[in-house]
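Lab manual, section 2.4: Encoding a predicted structure.

Procedure: take the sequence of the chain (81 residues), apply the prediction step described in section 2.3, and record the output as structure tokens. A sample record is shown.
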Amino acid sequence: DQEAKIKPILEAEAEKVKALRAQRDPNAPRSERGERFKEMRAIQQDTQDRVNPILTPEQQAEWAKMREEMRERARGYRNRS
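Recorded output:
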């Protein structure tokens, strides 16, 4: 039941992130990149706000841990470029 509720939320997040990345311009001014970062964080926060009520407290802790690990991997990937 939880999976059926969460899957469309994650799919919607993936589509929003994909669209935002498609707009990315590596030559954009720093302020524009900052705005895009804020938009990305808003998408992630919206997803978290929609997923957390579906999960148990233990699952919420695991979900937060997984999301942080993904962020760390993304930071590492960006630092290698």
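Check your result against the sample. DSSP finds three helices and no strands in the chain.
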